[in-house]
UniProtKB/TrEMBL annotation:
It holds the Pfam family Exo_endo_phos. This is Endonuclease/exonuclease/phosphatase domain-containing protein. CDD domains: EEP-1 (cd09083). Residues 68-287 form the Endonuclease/exonuclease/phosphatase domain. GO terms for molecular function: 3'-5'-RNA exonuclease activity. It comes from Fusarium oxysporum (strain Fo5176) (Fusarium vascular wilt). Transmembrane segments: none annotated.
Length: 365
């Protein structure tokens, strides 16, 4: 057996990220439709839609180390069930829009807790009194925005994510909600001693691009851009409209959006509006999920160097030799077993340090 050194996962990831100065991030917004017994024509119960929703969320985020999921119209039990189904490596922030934290609909933000640390969170109401449960202007319901600041556990880079749901009736309420959203985004983007790399906003705005609220959010002085405008139209994936209803009788519309403040802070790579129904005829929701991939600016000045215990790594050479030597570690056919959680990102030619491994010949074991 030969003991050598290899780098920790975190150290390797830091080296890769620092070299490229940017890190990938996927963001998704999805109005999942609240669970109701007063269902529309063709609408399936929540217990039928739930597993399909989870499968879609898992599929869309699988393989993406830094995904954020902005949801709307979730009741308390739906939030808890989605959390349970996604698993312990996910966490969420948010509360209901009613008087009590569990009352009314949530606009939660789900994030990977093994990748991001939530350092600040708040829910505000879209009204004249945003610090307390309240209804704004001509809105027929309380409306909220969930806001979170997240720190990347390896690099220390911070991002701000909002999830919101504007009123479906009140025109004045939507207009003033747009103005509040711009105000909150500016406040959160500059808050604290560590400026956020990006401020990302997802939600159901009940406002089409021709409407006043949308135009206010994307006006030149707002500093906010529609993510879809930052990807050439011919490179968009999927559908155009985001609201479909559960059947006939409703006009499809584009009312769900992803926005970014100060788009120069990120390179937007993809944009798509995904499907909400498939061959079995079940629609997961009356909305479609909207998704985008970005490369955000990495803050290398605040790189975090996590303390990790050395990990034992076994390289098993599947050769015909009757003995094992240190040179075995350089051979291409190796079986890698890590005793620490998480994937190991390494290069055959990388600088090996900080961890120990043993080389064992299969014919001797």
């Amino acid at each position: 057996m030969t003991q050598l050194d290899i780098p920790s996962t975190a150290s390797l990831r830091m080296e890769v990220l620092a070299k490229h100065q940017r890190m990938p991030l996927r963001i998704l917004t999805f109005n999942v439709r609240y669970a109701t017994n007063n269902r529309e024509h063709n609408e399936k119960p929540w217990d039928v839609r739930r597993p399909k929703l989870i499968n879609q969320l898992n599929f869309v985020t699988a393989g993406h180390e830094s995904p954020f999921i902005c949801l709307q119209e979730c009741l308390n039990h739906q939030v808890n069930e989605i959390q349970e189904d996604l698993g312990s490596h996910w966490k969420h922030i948010g509360r209901g829009r009613g008087e009590k934290p569990e009352d009314g609909e949530f606009s939660p933000i789900f994030y990977r807790n093994d990748v991001w640390k939530n350092v600040r969170k708040e829910v505000r109401w879209l009204s004249k009194t945003p610090e307390k449960p309240s209804r704004g202007w001509d809105a027929v319901l309380n409306r909220i925005v969930t806001m979170g600041e997240f720190e990347h556990r390896v690099t220390g880079t911070r991002v701000v994510v909002f999830s919101t749901h504007f009123d479906h009736i009140g025109v004045k309420a939507r207009q003033h909600s747009a103005e509040l959203l711009i105000k909150f985004a500016k406040e959160w983007g500059q808050a604290g001693d560590k400026k956020a790399s990006a401020v990302l906003i997802g939600g159901d705005f009940n406002s089409e691009p021709e409407d006043g609220a949308y135009k206010t959010i994307t006006a030149s002085g707002s500093g906010i851009s529609d993510v879809s405008d930052l990807v050439p139209k011919h490179k968009h994936y999927g559908n155009e409209t985001t609201y479909t209803s559960f059947g006939e009788g409703w006009q499809p519309s584009r009312i769900d959006f992803l926005f970014i403040q100060e788009p120069r802070t990120a390179h937007v790579k993809t944009f798509g509006v995904l499907a909400n129904g498939f061959d079995d005829g079940v629609r997961v929701s009356d909305h479609r999920p909207v998704v985008s991939d970005l490369d955000i600016v990495l803050n290398t000045s605040i790189m975090v160097h996590p303390d990790e215990e050395p990990s034992t790594v076994i390289f098993a050479h599947q050769g015909s030799s009757g003995h094992t030597s240190p040179s075995t570690a350089t051979l291409p056919v190796l079986t890698l077993i890590l005793s620490t959680a998480g994937a190991m990102q390494a290069s055959r030619t990388g600088n090996m340090h900080n961890h120990r491994y043993h080389c064992v010949d299969h014919h001797q074991a």
